[in-house]
Amino acid sequence: SPPGLLLLTSFLLHVKEGRASPARLVCDNRLIQKYIGDAKDMEKRVSQCQALPMLSCPVVLPLVDFSLWQWKTKSNETKRREILCDLALLVVAVTGAQSQVSQECGAGQLSQLYRHANSFLLLLQTFSREEEPWEPDCSPRSMEQIRIAGIFLTYRQLVQGKLRFFFHDLAKDSC
């Protein structure tokens, strides 16, 4: 089964009835550690692909660095929306890179990355306490990238940074 499906299924099995709640997904620290490990593994595997080409058309990636002090001053909803914006831009970047990579190893890794990033995107959309659906009406800080490895680095940094701290903050409120 695809790893992204595991993430979504794991979440759905632990959602409380009624309003979506992060429940055990964020309460069990081992899950986010697993996703961080998966991101590191994908980054390592793509670095082992032979002769990965540079992208002929750069993709736009979110800048996912952040100040922990500023992060702590934001509401969970603001954090969620910021991560959603980053993930939406990352998913578009992965799609753009996929259209340029024909090499089997690189294409396979990009497919896996797409499933993981898109699963987190869908998952975080369910965390909203708002009635209206989330619309990607944001403009995160971004940079152009022509290296495929840079896409994987951005994903790992997002999971290891903002997502991990967001899940930690949700766990304080939910567990």
Characterization of this structure:
This protein has helices at 3-13, 23-27, 29-47, 68-72, 76-98, 104-125, 148-174, and strands spanning 59-62, 142-145. By secondary structure, the chain is mostly helical. It has one domain (20-173): Growth Hormone, Chain: A (Up-down Bundle). A two-stranded antiparallel sheet has the order 1-2. Helix 1 runs parallel beside helix 6 (104-125), helix 3 runs antiparallel to helix 7 and helix 5 packs antiparallel against helix 6 (104-125). The chain is globular and about 45 Å long. Residues 13-22 have low confidence and may be disordered.
- What would the CATH topology be? Growth Hormone, Chain: A
Query: How large is the radius of gyration?
Result: 16 Å
What is the succession of H and E elements? HHHEHHHEH
Strand content: under 5%
**N-C termini distance:** 29 Å
Structure classification: mainly alpha
CATH second-level architecture: Up-down Bundle
Shape: globular
Record the strand order, biggest sheet.
1-2
Number of structural domains: 1
- What's the total number of strands? 2
Q: Which stretches of 5+ consecutive residues score pLDDT under 50?
A: 13-22
The pLDDT mean sits at 83
Q: Could you estimate the helical fraction of the residues in percent?
A: 55-70%
What is the top-level CATH class? Answer: Mainly Alpha
Number of helices: 7
Characterize the biggest β-sheet.
Answer: 2 strands, antiparallel
Protein name: TPO protein
Family: Belongs to the EPO/TPO family.
GO molecular function: cytokine activity; hormone activity
Subcellular location: Secreted
